[in-house]
Write a structure and sequence with these properties.
Number of strands: 5
Shape: elongated
CATH architecture: 2-Layer Sandwich
Number of helices: 3
Low-confidence stretches: none
GO molecular function: copper ion binding
CATH topology: Alpha-Beta Plaits
Order of helices and strands: EHEEEHEH
Number of domains: 1
GO biological process, one term: response to metal ion
Family: Belongs to the CutA family.
Helix content: 25-40%
Protein name: Divalent cation tolerance protein
InterPro entries: Ion_tolerance_CutA, N-reg_PII-like_a/b, N-reg_PII/ATP_PRibTrfase_C
Length: 104
């Protein structure tokens, strides 16, 4: 197990992903954010099956900051119930792990 984590989130559009991503890096809650290309989501919401385009993003952070990062993303998110989860990193290139830990 390493001391870092990836926080995955999806956003309504690229502008929201960029705004929140930049805020998290500037606030020192994430060392980096990768904003990925649009994806198509099919999901159940309030009893109906919905679908739409979303923008996924991967935030790199220290494991001990994952909960704070999740809370900060959720507080700024446009969704009522944003998908924001942490994935623990069990193995990483040592230099990358150090960069994430030291980059915050």
């Amino acid at each position: 197990m390493t001391g870092i984590a990836t926080v995955y989130a999806v956003f309504a559009d690229e502008a929201e992903a960029e705004r929140i991503g930049r805020e998290m890096v500037e606030a020192g809650l994430a060392a980096c954010v990768n904003i990925l290309g649009p994806c198509r989501s099919i999901y159940r919401w309030q009893g109906a099956v919905e679908e739409g385009a979303e923008i996924p993003a991967l935030f790199k952070t220290r494991a001990d900051q994952a909960d704070a990062l999740i809370a900060a993303i959720a507080a700024r998110h446009s969704y009522d119930v944003p998908a924001v989860v942490a994935w623990p990193i069990t193995a990483a290139h040592p230099a990358y792990e150090a960069w994430v830990r030291d980059g915050i």
